[in-house]
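[Automated response] Your request has been received and processed.

Submitted sequence:
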Amino acid sequence: MKNAFTMIELVFVIVVLGILALVAIPKLSATRDDAEIVIKQKSVTNLIAELSSYYTAHGAFEKNVSKMTHENLVDSSGATYIGNFLTTPAYIANSARTKICLKVSVDDSNGTITIAKHSDGSDYCDALISQLDNTIKKYEIGGSHIYTK
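Generated structure:
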């Protein structure tokens, strides 16, 4: 009696492991996207709160967005946003910056923050937009509280 595996047994084990991998990898990918969507939901809520707080404290928005928020915004190409926030919208993307899903713009003349859909048609963006459906709107900041339209 030999204490070794035959070639057929090894091939069978490799085939079974391959089938398990085919089933498990899409599930892990979907779980990662779900976690990222939850993170972006909190990020958008935090962004609105920080921009609102800044406007309430200073009476105007700043052209340099990094002075108003710590959230990572990108430009339309997915690069780190460094534009004039008063004239050029910024975007919210996934952490890899490959999917740009939401557009953020401010209007200093009437104190509004606008969160708008900017989906690239990916499943990730569609899921994020559906989760943030009540958050995607225009916010008017006035007095001691925020009005939404």
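Summary generated for your ticket: The chain has two helices and five strands. The first helix runs from residue 7 to 58.
If you did not submit this request, please reply to this message.
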